[in-house]
Amino acid sequence: MTKEEKYRELLRQAEALLADEKDPIARMSNLSAMLHTEMGFWWTGFYRVQEEELILGPFQGPVACLRIAFGRGVCGTAWKEQRTLVVPDVEQFPGHIACSSESRSEIVIPVWQQSQVVAVLDIDSRELNSFDNTDREWLEKFAVLTYGPSKEIWFAAGCFWGAQKFFKRIKGVDYTEVGFANGQLMNPSYEQVYIDTTGHAECVHIRYNPTVISLRRLTELYFKIIDPLSLNKQGEDEGTRYRTGVYFDDSQDVATLSKVFTNVKRSLGVSALPVELLPLRCFFRAEDYHQDYLDKNPGGYCHLSPDVFELI
Known about the structure:
By secondary structure, the protein is of the alpha+beta class. It folds into 2 domains: 3-143, Beta-Lactamase; 151-311, Peptide methionine sulphoxide reductase MsrA (Peptide Methionine Sulfoxide Reductase, Chain A, 2-Layer Sandwich). It is 30% helix and 26% strand. The protein has a 6-stranded antiparallel sheet, with helices on both faces. Strands 13-12-7-9-8-14 form a 6-stranded mixed sheet, with helices on one face. It is globular, with a radius of gyration of 20 Å.
C-alpha cells in the first residue's frame, strides 16, 4: 500500500469515527492517536491558540514544549504565516525550538475555524527529510476535521481577490485560498497565467462545514457575485483566466450543483450559461502576496460591487 493509499483509507476511518463527536479536544485526541499509530510518526499532536501563545493539546509521543510564542519555531511560524510548513532539517530552520534533540524533520499544518488559525497539527520525525507534498496534502485534510466535518469546493468568479474577501466572511467557511485551476501548466506563476496561455482560471478554494452552510447556499451566493451571462469577462477584467466556473472533487455534489445551475437558467430565461461546471482537474496555490490581498491592501482593486458584501 502506498503512502497516499494509507492516508486515504485512514481519512475514511477518521471521518466515520468522528462523525457524531462535536468536542474539539476529543477530536484532536483521536486524530493524534490514529495518525501516530497508523502512519508510524515519532511525535504527533496539536497546539491550541490561546491569546498570543500556542498551548500544548492532545498528543502522542515523548514530553513536549508546553507553550510556544507567536512566530517562534516551526509551529509559531506556521501560525503566523498561516500556511503549512514542511521542514526537511529542523536544525536549519531559523529560530527552531528544540523541544527534543531527537527531532530531525517536521511538518506543521494550521487548523482553521471561521477563517482564523485556531490550532496547529505538529508532526515530527527522527529522520531527516521525512515529509513531502503528499503528507502536506493529506494531513491538511485531517487537520480540517478538528472542528467538525469538512467539504471542499472551487469557485472561479473573475478576479480572485474580491471573491476570496467575499467567501471568507461567510459563516461556515473555515478556510479559503486563491490559486489557478484546470489549466495545462504545472505550478504556474501569476505572470504566466495573466497572459492567458496556461488555460488556468483564477479560482478560490473553499473548505466549509456542511453542518453550518450547505453547498447549495454557497453556490447560490456565488451566482450573486458574478455576471452569469458574461463569457471570459467579469467587471473590467477580461480573458480566459477570468472565466467563471464551479469545480468539484466529489461526484455526489453534482446533483446539488446541477439543480442550482438549472434554477439560475430558469430565472434568467436561458437554456445555457457560460459558467463551467466541471470536475477539478488541478489547482495550484497562488503566490503568498495574492492570499487575502484585500485584507492586506484595503484600498486595493476589487471588481465586486460593495453591495454584494451585504448579502453575507
